[in-house]
Structure formats: structure tokens, C-alpha cells
Design brief:
Pathway: Pyrimidine metabolism; UMP biosynthesis via de novo pathway; orotate from (S)-dihydroorotate (quinone route): step 1/1. By secondary structure, the protein is α/β, with parallel strands linked by helices. It has helices at about 1-15, 20-60, 65-75, 80-95, 135, 180-190, 230-240, 265-280, 300-315, 350-360, 380-385, 395-400, 405-420, 425-435; strands at about 110, 115, 120, 145-150, 160-165, 170-175, 210-215, 245-250, 290-295, 320, 345, 370-375, 390-395. Strands 3-4-7-8-9-10-12-13 form an eight-stranded parallel beta barrel, surrounded by five helices. Mean pLDDT is about 90; it is low at about 1-15.
């Protein structure tokens, strides 16, 4: 039995081929290669998914990373002006975040009979040369104001000229109208016009339903202080490309500019720009002439505001923005940069700007809309201006501190406040304007 078994074993060994060491190594290598390919595929899938999720998170303007990570990092890594330029370039590139939420009906606003999707705009000073209009509109603003733009290029004031006051949620700037000039901005505005543009009743220069484009007109530093010519030139050059033209006589950083708010000079200025506007052909983009809006300072005495109101009534100017930055320095300021020269904006400006708006509202009729600007960073701030008689509001410094989600956050807060009171933005504005405006005889 043992011999037969042993013989059978030897026969079996001869019949069954044995794997060579080389063949075994090939099997092992193939197995390892297969496992490595599987791991690579898994890693690639995870990486792709991670990048996709990050992109979704990044492109949503509401993402906390913008307010609490990216914007503070930009502010602390670079000086104020460099950070500002980087933000503009990102929004210009098309790689900026977007507001993905449709505006609630409660936020609907009316301006000169035109319906806007919400009352929140971005003030002039952020996009000085019209580089990032569409990137800003994508953040949910209904009113984008570019500039100030001057007829001829100019460098503005010497650097440094922008200073953060984080302890006070404020900013001081003395830019002095740095501008690439009118020709440069016009070339960008022309490039935005759709190739197959068709003018309709609701067409605006923003090329976005429920939104408008405003252009803030500035004055060259080298121009005669008392002359309105730069503003007249601006009206003629930019009239075809804007829904609104803003006559800026209130920047504190151009010598003599605020002097144009004095009665005699302002009367001549308003007469000149209104004449230039009325002589324009209707825009080939909107089939309308642009509205003309005056932007005033918050540092005017009450008697000066009353004088300006009288001129506004006589000139048929279309509206007023209240206000620009202030040269005052409230005692509440604590930041070391509070002593810098220039215009102060942000939270400390709100009481002064709001009071100026209330004074003006009481001395102009309901037919003249006011736009509130100064220290607005929350829905409650915006509602304060509406209750004082402002039809729209603009943000600036709050946008710089809180980042690309600022507009959506203000709108969400405002919507919640209006819902709690069972009212709408338009209803609040209509009631306030009716209550506080000058009664026309």
C-alpha cells in the first residue's frame, strides 16, 4: 500500500506541471500592479470629488470661507490698496463667486418707475475703471456704480492712500480719483455690449434684468476748480452707456471739489449737466437718456443742505445720493489709523449720513428719490435708511470687510425683518417718502 501510494504520488507529480519561480513572480507583480491601479483610481476619484465640492463651495458667495478665511487673509497679507486691486481682478476674471439665490418678492424696489430685484447696490470707488461690472452683478447687487472716472487719465494722490480701521469697522481713503480715463472705460463698456443686442422696454445698461449700471463722474485735478466742463464732458461721453450718471462734487480728496456744493457754483453745474444730458440722443442700448444723480457730502451744514434742496427742485435733477465719505473724526474712533488724512467711511459714518438724508428728505418732494449710503453692513442698517425715506441703499466699506457674501447676507437679513413685520421694502419706502417728503404745492 505504501509503495503504490508513493508510486502514484510520483506519477501525479509528473502529470501536474509545477509553477516556476519566474511565473510566480509575474503573478505577484501583476497583482501588485492591479492593486496600485485601483488605489490610483480611488485617489483620483476622491481628488476629483474634493475639487468639485470645493469649487461648488467657493463659487457660492454665501460660503463662510469668504467672510472668515479668504477676505481676512487678503486684508492681513496685503496693504489695503493691493488687496483692493486683487479683489477687482478676481471679479474681473470671471472666477469670482456668485449669489445663487433668487431675490425674494419682499425685496422688490421701484426706481423712476423701473423695478429692481432688490434695493442693495455697490457704491462707486470699488470698481474705479469699470473692469469687473459683471462679476459684481453676479454677487447679487441690483445697482452697480463704477468710477469715479475722469475725462483724462490721472494717477491720483501719492501712496499709501488707503487705511483700514478694523477696530472701528471703518476705512480712510485719500485716493484722489485715480483713473485710467474716459477712453479706457468706454472701450470696456463697448466690449460688454452683446453682439446681437436687441433693445426692449426693460433693457438696461447692466444687461441683467432687475439691475442698473451707474457711472460716477469725477473731475481732473488739473482742471479749473470752478468749471463744470469735466462733468459736461462725462455726460456726453458716457450717456449712451449708462442708466444713471452720478455727478460727484463731494469727494474730500480733490482740492476744491466740495466747493462746487456752494449755491452759485452748484447752480451753474446742475444747469450745465442737465442741458448736456437733455441734448443727448436716446441711448442705442436702452433707447433712453440716462438719469442724472447728484452725490453730496455728509459734512454739510443744515442750511447748506436746504440750499442744495432748493436747487435740486429747480434743476429737475433726477435724484440724490446721500452721502460720500466724511472728513470728521467721531470721538468713538479707537484705531491707530484714525489720524490719517482722507475720507472716513464705514460704521462711524452712518449717523452723520443718515441725518443728512433725513434733512434732505424733508426739503425735496417725493418725486425725487434718495439713495442712502454710509455705514450699511446689515439688513437693519438698510431698513433704517428706508424708514428715513431712501429708495435704495449702497454699501462700500462693509463689502470690503465682509467679502463677496455681503450683499446676499444683507438681503437675507432684510427679508427676515420685513417678513417679521409682514411688509415689503417698497411699502416701507412708500410710507416713509409720503410721510417725510416736502409737500408740493
Amino acid at each position: 500500500m505504501h509503495l503504490r501510494t508513493t508510486g502514484f504520488y510520483h506519477v501525479l507529480r509528473k502529470q501536474v506541471p509545477q509553477r516556476s519561480p519566474v511565473f510566480a513572480r509575474r503573478i505577484t507583480t501583476a497583482s501588485s500592479s492591479s492593486q496600485s491601479s485601483a488605489r490610483t483610481a480611488i485617489y483620483a476619484t476622491v481628488l476629483t470629488a474634493s475639487v468639485g465640492l470645493f469649487a461648488v463651495y467657493y463659487y457660492d458667495a454665501r460660503s463662510a470661507m469668504h467672510r472668515y478665511v479668504l477676505t481676512p487673509a487678503l486684508r492681513h497679507t496685503f496693504d489695503a490698496e493691493t488687496g483692493h486691486r486683487i479683489a477687482v481682478k478676481v471679479l474681473r476674471s470671471g472666477l469670482g463667486p456668485r449669489d445663487p439665490v433668487q431675490d425674494d418678492e419682499r425685496l422688490r424696489s421701484e426706481f423712476w418707475g423701473r423695478e429692481l430685484s432688490n434695493p442693495v447696490g455697490l457704491a462707486a470707488g470699488f470698481d474705479k475703471d469699470g473692469e469687473a461690472i459683471d462679476g459684481i452683478l453676479n454677487l447679487g447687487f441690483s445697482w452697480v456704480e463704477i468710477g469715479s472716472v475722469t475725462p483724462k487719465p490721472q494717477p491720483g494722490n501719492p501712496k499709501p492712500r488707503v487705511f483700514h480701521l478694523p477696530d472701528d469697522a471703518a476705512l480712510i481713503n485719500r485716493y484722489g480719483f485715480p483713473s485710467q480715463g474716459a477712453a479706457s472705460m468706454i472701450s470696456r463698456l463697448r466690449a460688454r455690449i452683446p453682439k446681437f443686442h436687441e433693445t426692449k422696454d426693460d433693457t438696461t445698461a447692466a444687461f441683467k434684468p432687475g439691475s442698473v449700471l451707474a457711472i460716477n463722474l469725477g473731475k481732473n485735478k488739473s482742471s479749473p476748480v470752478e468749471s463744470p466742463d469735466d462733468f459736461v464732458t462725462g455726460v456726453k461721453m458716457f450717456g449712451p452707456y449708462a442708466d444713471v450718471l452720478v455727478v460727484n462734487v463731494s469727494s474730500p480728496n480733490t482740492p476744491g471739489l466740495r466747493g462746487l456744493q456752494n449755491r452759485e457754483l452748484l447752480e451753474d453745474l446742475l444747469t450745465s449737466v442737465m442741458k448736456a444730458r437733455d441734448e443727448l440722443e436716446p441711448s442705442p442700448i436702452t433707447a433712453r437718456r440716462p438719469r442724472l444723480v447728484l452725490k453730496i457730502a455728509p459734512d454739510l451744514e443744515e442750511s447748506q443742505i436746504i440750499d442744495i434742496a432748493d436747487l435740486i427742485r429747480k434743476s429737475n435733477i433726477d435724484g440724490v445720493i446721500v452721502s460720500n465719505t466724511t472728513i470728521s473724526r467721531p470721538a468713538s474712533l479707537t484705531d491707530p489709523n484714525k489720524s490719517e488724512i482722507g475720507g472716513l467711511s464705514g460704521a462711524p459714518l452712518k449717523p452723520r449720513a443718515l441725518q443728512a438724508l433725513k434733512t434732505l428728505r424733508a426739503h425735496v418732494p417725493a418725486s425725487i428719490p434718495l439713495i442712502g449710503c454710509g455705514g450699511i453692513s446689515t439688513g437693519a442698517d438698510a431698513l433704517d435708511y428706508a424708514r428715513a425715506g431712501a429708495s435704495l441703499v449702497q454699501v462700500y466699506t462693509g463689502f470690503g470687510y465682509d467679502g463677496v457674501g455681503t450683499c446676499r447676507r444683507i438681503k437675507d437679513e432684510l427679508e427676515a425683518l420685513l417678513k417679521a413685520e409682514n411688509t415689503t421694502w417698497k411699502a416701507v419706502v412708500d410710507e416713509s417718502v409720503r410721510k417725510f417728503s416736502l409737500t408740493e404745492s
